[in-house]
Amino acid sequence: MLKKKKPVESKQKLMKQAEAKWKELCWAIYGTKCAVCNQPANSIHHFIPRSRNGLMIYDIKNGVPLCISCHYIIHFSHNPADVFRIVNNIRKIRGKKWCKYIDEKEKCHKASFKTVFWLKAELDKLQKYGTKKIFV
Known about the structure:
Layout (H helix, E strand, L loop, with lengths): L10 H20 L12 E4 L16 E4 L1 H9 L3 H15 L1 H12 L8 H14 L7
Antiparallel strand pairs: 1-2
């Protein structure tokens, strides 16, 4: 008799789980106010965009709560001065230690990520994370 193999979790399912856990932890750690203007936040922004560094997707320190206005400016403003003002405000609020961490992480690029193994490891890290204090 053949042994039944355990079903392999799909990448999409793991990505959804990791994204949900990442957001949950970011809300718990950073609160529900916009990091820039202190209005109620409605989204968690990836400071280092997912498209620029996939390894930072589920990094808690990469999450920044933003209101709809500030988030819109970052993604859609045609005025670079507005974007710079918001990004610079985030950097000031988070502090030098955070900026150094983000700048170093932004330079790191691995060829392979988003494999099922990598996603499981990231989800495991997030689940163990809890809401421990991180530098902000």
